[in-house]
Amino acid sequence: MNKLLINIFLITFLVFLGHNVEGLGVNWGDITSHKLPPKDVVKMLQENGIKKVKLFNNDDTILNALAGTGIEVMIGISNQLLKDLVNPDIAKKWVKENVTRYEPKSPKGVNITLIGVGNEPFLRDYKDTLTNVTGPALENVQNALNDAGLGDTTKATVPLNADVYLSPSWNPVPSAGFFRADIVDPLNYILKVLNKNNAPFMVNIYPFLSLFYGNGAFPFNYAFFDGVSNPLKDKDGVEYTNCFDANLDTCAAALAGAGYSNMTIIVGEMGWPTDGNPCANVTLAEKFYKGFISYLAKGKGSPRRPGYIEAYIFALFDEDRKSTLPGNFETHWGLYYDDGKPKFPLDLNGNNKSLVPVPNVEALSKKWCGVKPDVKNFTDLISYACDRADCTPLTNGSSCEILSDAAKASYAVNAYFQNQQQKDDSCDFEGKATVTTKDPSQGTCNFTIGFKTLTPLTPSPSPLPSSDHSSSSDAKAPSSSSASPSSPKSLAFASVVVFSIVPLLIISDSSFYTL
């Protein structure tokens, strides 16, 4: 009898575990020089039991690959379109062309459940340019969904940066959370629309960025889910042992203060990068994700929001063309490398199954590009190659920081060589580089091999320039200070929320999908 009871308990626990982890989705971005075939990525999603996907656009190829799978899909509307969507007729046209035509209510269609109207439009960088158009755009899109007979299953929301709420300096605890004074009116407009249509409030939360911008003042363990010896104490004896709970409950308190204590909160982005910073590595990312998934599986929630929490991991893949303006970790948020291989074992749905790779990805030949031994000046080589490939692993605190100057130059030219699909003339550099079949990887620094892709390559291989390295590039060099077309012109991620434990930075990422 005891054995039977134990078995019943285990079965019940596993069902409970799997049920709660089903609230986990992934962000699928595409700021990359080489894209994997969407149909193969979708196969990988299904193999891993991933049932929710958040997109930053409405890529037709991706949406067609998702058709008939039942995977819940969120598609994004760029900030550039918000002003146009203030016109109800344009909103109706957008819904018809980007939602209705994919037949979201048909088993053979795309299961579009959410529309992201803009992305973090209240970032201070925008200087109020989107403040007064976001709410009307949201309302018009939702009304268009309602008119099309889709409003009961497809909801419009606005993904927001976590800097829209904070706690006062004189009472720095989650329960005192409130919305920023400069956006109260436009945010109330949004909240009324969401509430009227039973749509969720969406916010992006990043414990890593709290640690990164904490400048050593933020307690390391508070970014994870293992608990801390000195928890943050709120009123009524409530204690916070991790940054995520404190952040989420600050948001919940702000919503309650605005009159929406029961509004659903979805975490639109949550992740940990694996390179580009001393705290961005595979070991810590694995620790973070395993802790977060275990947290979700328990179904406990936060003190103010107990129970089920829906969240989207940021991100599915590394994206080598993202701007490195916020930090050199920006190209390394993926659970997967850009070739579709998982970075570490991870069970996403409580089925004791590690991540499976994207199928049908064919690696290029086992050969690398390296600088010849007689080359002594590496500046131009590195500048040219890193303007056209991702060299962030070479930066301070990153996986290839330990390399000699010559080895760093070889890493750079190899990154370019692989990015150019190992074309014969892409490993020459005016006779200063050559191809080798000996793997030059050292320690934590992996000299990668590319994968075969049909993605058009730009720019094509060309001779090493003399001094001007300001031409357009496939990816930002580590030293780049210019923003890409898909990022804000300056970094203003966050306001600071000061809790009694230490400064807790309420900040977010994804400003690279805003335009």
UniProtKB/TrEMBL annotation:
One Pfam match, given by its short name, reads: Glyco_hydro_17
Domain of life per record: Eukaryota
**Keywords in alphabetical order:** Disulfide bond, Glycosidase, Hydrolase, Signal
Question: Keyword Hydrolase, does the record have it?
Answer: yes
- What InterPro entries does the annotation carry? GH, Glyco_hydro_17, Glyco_hydro_17_plant, X8
Q: Which ranges carry the X8 domain?
A: 367-447
Question: Where are the residues of the annotated region Disordered?
Answer: 459-488
Q: Name one GO molecular function term.
A: hydrolase activity, hydrolyzing O-glycosyl compounds
Matches recorded under Gene3D superfamilies: 1.20.58.1040, Glycosidases (3.20.20.80)
Descriptive protein name: X8 domain-containing protein
Q: Which PANTHER family match?
A: GLUCAN ENDO-1,3-BETA-GLUCOSIDASE BG1-RELATED-RELATED (PTHR32227)
Q: Which GO terms describe its biological process?
A: carbohydrate metabolic process
Q: Where is the composition biased (Low complexity)?
A: 465-488
The similarity annotation says: Belongs to the glycosyl hydrolase 17 family.
Report the leader peptide range.
Answer: 1-23
